[in-house]
Amino acid sequence: MATLATSVVDVCAEAKRAARVLAQTDTAVRDGALEAIAAALEERLEEILAANERDMAAAREAGARAAEPRAGDALLDRLRLDEGRVRAIARAVRQIVALEDPVGEVIDGHRLPNGLDVRKVRVPLGVVAVVYEARPNVTVDASALCLKSGNAIVLRGSSSAAHSNAVLAHVVAEAAVAAGLPEGCVSLVAGGGRAELAELATQKDTVDLIIPRGGEGLKDALQAVATVPVIYAASGNCHVYVDDSADLDHAQAIVVNAKTQRPGVCNAAETLLVHERIAAQLLARVLPALAAAGVVVRADPRSHAIASSCATPDLMIENAGDEDWATEYLAPVIAVAVVDCVEDAIEHIASYGSGHSEAIVTRELAAARAFQLGVDAACVYVNASTRFTDGGEFGMGAEIGNSTQKLHARGPIGLRELCTFKYLIEGDGHVRA
Amino acid sequence: MATLATSVVDVCAEAKRAARVLAQTDTAVRDGALEAIAAALEERLEEILAANERDMAAAREAGARAAEPRAGDALLDRLRLDEGRVRAIARAVRQIVALEDPVGEVIDGHRLPNGLDVRKVRVPLGVVAVVYEARPNVTVDASALCLKSGNAIVLRGSSSAAHSNAVLAHVVAEAAVAAGLPEGCVSLVAGGGRAELAELATQKDTVDLIIPRGGEGLKDALQAVATVPVIYAASGNCHVYVDDSADLDHAQAIVVNAKTQRPGVCNAAETLLVHERIAAQLLARVLPALAAAGVVVRADPRSHAIASSCATPDLMIENAGDEDWATEYLAPVIAVAVVDCVEDAIEHIASYGSGHSEAIVTRELAAARAFQLGVDAACVYVNASTRFTDGGEFGMGAEIGNSTQKLHARGPIGLRELCTFKYLIEGDGHVRA
Q1: What is the CATH number of domain B238-388?
Q2: pTM of the model
Q3: Which residues in B lie closer than 8 A to residue A227 (C-beta atoms)?
Q4: Which of A220, B274, B277, B306 sits 20 to 30 Å CA-CA off A417?
Q5: How far apart are the first and last CA of chain B?
Q6: Which of B116, B382, B395 sits opposite A426 (nearest CB)?
């Protein structure tokens, strides 16, 4: 059971033993366990909410003592559970049941000239550690994705959600084991210290992958110590480039959507690049629309000159500094620059982009092709908003994060990305000459 | 050109610029460059051999001063180039030309319910650094694989082959650039110090992957400092398990092949596990055959008892200690243990295997299935020798090494494994609701 675990080393070793059993379970057993988890979350609602209230009380108390009490509001909202949120978590687990099992999928296969049959088959990674901050729903979401893909999971949440996470992990683990999954398939490492994080990040004999979900501080802390492979969730400095051949209605809709539909997430746009031939027309439409949505504009000299001529009362324009091109605002702020051609847009993105999601709006095939070929990013869009970079939107089902790394997982980290593969080779006494 | 490079930082930055151009080259251009490289190697044979002779002379001199001069013989053989070897290197480059281009391959693709078209397309990683010891042919082999897959390469060889590597890298780079590839697509970092290795291993803004090809010391040195992703070439503690239902002719052929066909490589077998019901019969056949090939046997108590009864004059049997099960001999030595069932064999492999290549010899489907499902390794064989784990044997063409990691590449690292992918998404003004 999750809460009885003693040391990080022991938890990981037990997870490894569980992983060996899990890797051999049938889809039906794992799906049955997820159904049981969803039911248990609903049945044990009061217990979960009581634990959450203890975290909330502690957070409120800490907030009252803090120098800037309003900063605590966002934390409290991330931390808070209520009946609706717990039912939504249970629903999300049932949605994962409905996804295709990645385990056992034959990725590739052929018969070699010497008669050996080779199959490349998807198998679970083994033990996945997920390190996360604040939101207690991650305890359940991440567990469900790992169990579905045949992996054992070791969770390490933040101390601010300790009571909520402990109860959720306990409910999940108990339901999973009762449904036939091995003991140790879901564990929570208690304690939020950096020393414990470092211990977890160096269990390379038992842990196959660490996925951090949190801010840059967490990433830096891991990068300094980890010997276990890490897939860092992405920061996204995403661009929309509007080509001179763009459909202006499309361009306006995409820029406004990419910036304002949910500004605080990694696939939101941070910079608008616009072709000089169309800049005046586009900015005259887009800037008032952004202003109406409360977006502040940081403009380069060329776009600033244009913007001044299309000023509406509520338009806030500031001068962009060099640091603006590299900034992920995660806020209602957008940097704007005029470029001379699609090549200049590609060059700008190569200099400042974080390899997450990049979009071009154009009607010209050559520009679309140049952009898709020339931009080095996980997701390259033509005539669509960067906001679509998401496992759910891509038809992969739920995701555990988004990767801007190039190895293993790039873009949404779904069930397949929680797997590795092995080659199965069958012969009839074959030996190498 | 390779030899004009100044600092590691500058070399990597130039490689990054080259990589952006390379990623957009057509197959024909890259293949033409490889043809030019092969031709240049043959044309500049004398220059290459002269440089190699300088390395050989230095190595001979160092060997004469060494405490154990015979240890230098293997080094000299690895270092030595002659006309035949250079022509073989050129031939290997031409074989890479013939391989399918992995760049641009559509791995997956579909139309989403909202009409967005999503394609997952293979693209080059960017800049690959290869760190290697002694063998100068790696300079050319690795360059050819990287250029074929659209990557720029930064080479870092050992100081013992400095002259050979410098000329080879220069010939390769000059031919590639003359054939239309960008300056900086092939570079050699001079100097073999640990400080320079650490500098290379931390260029995470420009280098996308480091592949070390060398001993454990090199791996340890990299693991301690690298912030760039590393794929460690494998050590292989490989097993052959002979089930009680095995065809004895097959079992004998596979054990002898896996152990003796080339004992010094990572896919050679190090331990024989044999089912107790068939142990006497099998060992009576296999041990004399191994003895005839000069193999020393390290036996557990049960197999030792049996082995004593089938002693032939040339059979050398020693008692296996605990450390034998974990040892990659890379030599004509084999550990032997009797196990009670396939589950025990799987358990032994889980405890001691390195996740490289594992084989079962059996006629029973249930045993084969249990072994393939239960053994966690890159390659799991049924009735075939572990020696087949090889990019060439698998039909992937040449390989740059073998990975026992689970992320990105597992097993042979061929052209596809030198690539990442990106999602290309096309819409018609799509925005997220």
Answers
A1: 3.40.309.10
A2: 0.92
A3: 223
A4: A220
A5: 52
A6: B382
